[in-house]
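Hello forum,

I keep getting stuck at the same step: I have a sequence, I want structure tokens, and every attempt I make locally crashes halfway through. Rather than fight my setup again tonight, could one of you with a working pipeline run this one for me? It's a single chain of 653 residues.
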Amino acid sequence: MISQRWMVDTEKEETWQFTINTTFVSSTNKTTAIPFTLYTQPRVKLQVSWGDGTTETIDSDKWSGWDSDGALHEYATPGTYTIQIKSRNWKKCYIDTTTYNHIGQCATPNTDTTYRYTKNLYYFTQTLTSLDSPLPSLKGAFKFGNQTYNDNSLSNYSSENYKEKVNYFEHIFANCSNLSSICSNLFPSKSFFSGDCSGFFYRCTSLTSIPQDLLKNAQNLLGQQLSNAGAGFFEGCTNLREIPAGLFDNCTELRYANKFFYGCSSLQNIPEHLFDNCTKANRMENVFYGCKLIEEIPEELFKYNTAVYDFGSTFNKCESLREIPENLFKYNTQATNFNNTFYGCINLTTIPENLFECNTQATNFGSTFDCCKSIQSIPEDLFKYNTAAQNFSNCFAGSNVTNYHFDNMTAIPEGLFRYNVNATNFYQTFFGWHNLQSIPANLFANCPKATSFQQTFLDCYNIESIPENLFASCPNVTTFTACFSKCRRIASIPENLFKYNTKVKSFQQCFELCSSITSIPARLFANNVEVTSFRSCFDRCELIQEIPATLFANNVMATDFVYCFYKNYRITTIPTNLFANNSSIQTLEKCFQECTSLQNFTIHISSPNITNVANFINPNSNYSRSVYVPRDSTTYNTFDALKQDLNITVVGE
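Reply #2:
Ran it on my machine without issues. Output:
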């Protein structure tokens, strides 16, 4: 169990006040709680006024630790109450926010006697409606990392030596779903923040506004350091409608704006100068992810954030966004990552030609415009100045899951990647361009470092032809997996298409469901001597009538031919020496299954190590079919075990 506690160092009496409503648990509920664990040594006293005329002293000498129900209070009647807590020794009081049972993850009262503290958190989380006064002058809070603490380990953390330690305030009011009001001076001093603040108001779904000066004393606020591992400050505040213009004016030390407004789906506007004073900020990942009502981005939003290197998913799923300011990233010359930046901006219609002109260090454009289904055209010089770019995977991809496709796009600019000499990854770059009619012959002519063309043109079902030299300048390619899968109007394959791609390992599904292809060039794979997989390569290419006898003659390392010619209905025979040179084959499962026109054949197989030939062909007793394999080998035993099921003769040689 990963644990975290607040430790406070002050000797003056301070009061913390907040309001609760017991009926948010149920209409008959009369219980609430304060979210504290009191370490038993040294002694701690809290004076609690429960708001119903009852005052109680909570004394750690009578407290049994975090397995106690001592912080619970039951009222005479359900309703709204204002609670005040006073103490002179806050520094000995801990607010426990463990990953198992902290405030933000306590959705139900826990009855486990070992961790009954979760019951306290549950009632606090569900009944809190308003933070009425500043938090105590917290100093020296700790995050204990990945350790489970006990009384012995805690004794060290209560000493004066730790009072200046970094403060961590993760998920403090997370999932307080009925919290609707925050006092403007919640954070009492400039030294309050000096560390991580992940998920401070995570999923406070009743919040509709933020006080203008909420972060007035947050000069030392660093932000959420991990882009995916933690929650953002206001993440999931789905009813938050606006951001105060000067919210970050004093956040001069802010480094990580990651996820700050992630999933704030009711936000409509971004203040023009929101981040002007955050000159040290270096990451803007997921800041406005899922803010689906935002229609505009201020052109100079990031003008003073010159240290930012990461814009990953910054505007991901901002579904109402219609245009991008041309100079949005003009001053962000250190930016390297634009992964998913505008993913799912489904109403975006245009891309400024010079959008990335100043981002010469950018390396990652993966999914930058993924699922931007309304884009009408792509500027040819969009990436002209991004010579360091390596990743274009999913850059303009559609999605079968959401049915967002680039159906307005009929052509790819021929010089789109002309300057991207370091590009390596074109995975799904144009996936789902249903109305793309042709591929520019020189599209990848200047991409000699490209290694992946996996699913690059998957589901581009109106492409009619493939340029013969499309990949001629890409000698380092290792995979063409599903590259042209579902391109159902392609009628022929150029013989020299893969002539210069000698490092390819996979042609898996390469022409799967290319249902208009009628023939296969005999030397299509002649130079691809390192290939290991032809799985589903010509799967459901229903019009192919003949398999060239030497098609795989040079592919001696190939191991996998599963589904290779599945449902090639017009094939009538298998060439005798089709697999004669392929001594590394391990599986021929379903290789010719549903090739229902197959008649007589005799084939020689050289591999001794085939372990799977299930459904190799459809059995048919009307024809003579013989398979010659190495005698006394695994292959012989595998075929022999299924010879009756396959209706074949197995001969050892």
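The radius of gyration is 33 Å. If your local run keeps crashing, start a new thread with the error log.
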